[in-house]
Specification:
This protein is mostly helical. Helix content is 45%, strand content 0%. It is built from 4 helices and no strands. The model has no long low-confidence stretch (mean pLDDT 92).
């Protein structure tokens, strides 16, 4: 698993997230929040890219993901 720290809104990954969220990237869905990620995993979804904050690593639910 590749982990890349994002430090700028100009980061290409951030720009891609914006395009996906706005619907400009077909066949991709932007989801946000632990609950939605848990539900998607439970439904068998596969993730191309995941972004998270350091706070997620310090929560029990985040560690389970």
């Amino acid at each position: 698993m590749l982990v890349e720290k994002i430090t700028s809104r100009q980061n290409p990954l951030v720009k891609r997230f914006r395009r996906v969220r706005s619907g400009d990237e077909r066949h991709l869905v932007f989801i946000e929040g632990v609950r939605l990620v848990e539900d998607a995993l439970g439904a068998g979804a596969h993730f191309e890219t995941v972004a998270y904050t350091s706070a997620l690593e310090s929560s029990e639910r985040g560690l389970r993901l």
